[in-house]
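Dear colleague,

Thank you for sharing your sequence with our group. We've completed the structure prediction you requested, and as agreed, I am returning the results in plain text so they can be pasted directly into your records. Please verify that the sequence below matches your submission; if there's any discrepancy, let me know and we will rerun it promptly.
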Amino acid sequence: MKLQVLVDNSPGGQDGLIAEHGLSIWMEVEGQQWLIDTGESDAFAQNAAQLGIDIADIDYLILSHGHRDHCGGLEAFLALNSNAKIYLSANIECNHYYSTRRGVKRDISLNHSLIQNNSHRFIFVKHNISLSHNVNIITSIPHNHPQPQANATLLKNDSLDNFNHEIVITVNTPCGVVIISPCSHNGVLNTLEACSHLGNISHYIGGTHLVDDFENENELFALATTIKQQYPTLALISGHCTGEGAKKVFNEVFDQNYINFYTGFGLIIE
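Please find the predicted structure tokens below.
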């Protein structure tokens, strides 16, 4: 399994790559190419070209949830790729999403007209499904543990978002199950629990939505310690919506099993 972060909030220092508030991850599994999210703009495609990845060759696009910083590059993807099927939660359809952080209500929805005008490309997922021998989409995420506190600033239509439109991707590898959860609005522990039936979880890759100014340090330490106790060999590889406070705590608790990703970050899992 090969993985490359095409765009993330953090720049990686590589000339020519664009960082933005968003996330897009390319991976190659079983000889097929997968794209998970498109970031906020066409930056993912510009970076892909710099990294030698041709968006036209992508076999599958998976949109993890309905927020623009993960779906905003969809128009650029459709212009560059004419074949890939696009998977997303059925709960996204007809819903609009808003952020009220810092007291301003902003529409952060994906562009629904792109779906309407290209309906033959989209597959709405209602249940856990396997897309290939080793790649799965998980839709059923329990709420047995607290969700990130910053969710209180996020709406679906006129109500607090329950994030039933968030899906995660799992990949079976020789070293264990790899979870890719771009934002983890449902919470890291809940997401891990949703995937635990698949076997030993070796890697958790994605954002944690533990943004600064919400969970305090004690709460972050309690969460990180619980994850470490329940999944002692887990490698946590995070970025995007993981705040600096959470990164510091994860680095202390997980030590060498924590990595912070960035625009242009690459990884091979064998």
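Summary note from our side: The first helix runs from residue 43 to 50.

Kind regards,
the structure core
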